[in-house]
Amino acid sequence: MLLGGKYQTYIRKGYGLLIACGLIILFALIGIEIHNIRNESTSPMRYTTLLGYFILVFPILLVIAVKPGNLSTFAAASRGISTSLTGQDNNLMDVLKSQITTEEGFRKLNIKQILVIAKQEPEKIEGLQISTEGFAYYEPTQPPGSFMLVRFLITCCAADATPLGIEVRTQETVQFPPDTWVKVQGTAKMENNKPIITQSIVTPVSKPSNVYLY
Asked: Per-10-residue mean pLDDT for the chain, 214 residues long?
């Protein structure tokens, strides 16, 4: 899981080195304790210590045995979809600008980037031609031809993942099955201090290898 990057299903990417160090320390402690039991007089305390180490190994075995799934529209509805970002990083805009690319005449942005720009430089959202991806979620209160495009933002781990969403208004009424991943290409604008994408062309796409934002 570490070599393939699949640990990112659970925690923020970049924590792989910490996991590797933790595993090395854990198995080193287990090896030392087994060596002590074999070469010294045993006591109930030593067996208790060894049992404690194996209890720590159990979650690792569980992670290996159980194939994890990605957070779904049900999780998004339960946690509440956020259409804005809290906090502010003065350097984030510079980082985002360096990452922005173009695609078929559209600026390729993820939902986090759109929300950051809308918060810090809202005047640059108006009229921007945007291409972005996420899964479609239909709120009961939304009118026909409108849906929320959603992706989860991980701060530390999947347990604290926040669903970020942006309203999409399509040129014609579309309805996708739950958890369908789509590409949206359209014109961004600010409405009630929130970004939306209008005049959108929506096409189904394959789920990305890593569905989370960081």
From this structure: 79 84 87 76 67 81 77 84 71 55 79 89 88 91 87 86 92 82 94 91 90 88
**Each residue's pLDDT tens digit, 35-55:** 777 776 556 666 777 778 788
Across the strands, what pairs with 122?
none
pTM surpassing 0.85? Answer: no
Q: Which residue has the tokens 């993942």?
A: 161
Amino acid at 202: V
DSSP secondary structure string for all residues of the chain: -TTTTGGGGTB-TT-HHHHHHHHHHHHHHHHHHHHHHHHS---HHHHHHHHHHHHHHHHHHHHHHS------HHHHHHH--BSS--S--TTHHHHHHHH-EEETTEEE--HHHHHHHHHH-GGGTTT-EEEEEEEEE--TTSPTTEEEEEEEE-SSBGGG-EEEEEEEEESS-----TT-EEEEEEEEEEETTEEEEEEEEEEE-PPPS---B-
- Could you state, in order of their start, the residue ranges of all structural domains in the chain? 6-65, 73-204
| Residue 198 pLDDT | 93
Instruction: Determine phi and psi for 94, rounding to 5 degrees.
Output: -65, -40
Specify whether domain 73-204 bears CATH 2.40.50.140: yes
